[in-house]
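Re: weekly structure request thread

Next one in the queue (103 aa):
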Amino acid sequence: MSGAMKGKGSRRSRHEWRSLLAKFDASCLGVEAFCQREAISAASLYRWRNLLGNGSDGVESVASVTAPAFVDLGPLGAAAASAPRIDLKLDLGDGLVLHLVRH
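Done, posted below.
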């Protein structure tokens, strides 16, 4: 599926894009270098990576696994008095730490 096989304006199937994205992940090349080698645009690579979710053939990569958007720490108020203490620290990088405590 190199540039010699597919010319400008040709269409690739979802399966071909999954294979191409897996090849990109294994290549250790930057986006520009990989796209030039494969004769595709960086915009197409980004678009298909977003559409297919970074996984290849249904297998998710570690980077595509997302954490839950919400963590329930339980009710607040009088009912929370009997709840165990929760001390949560999230290191957000660049020296930024979010520290949540429920007594």
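Residues 14-64 form one domain. Confidence is low (pLDDT under 50) at residues 55-64.
Next request, please.
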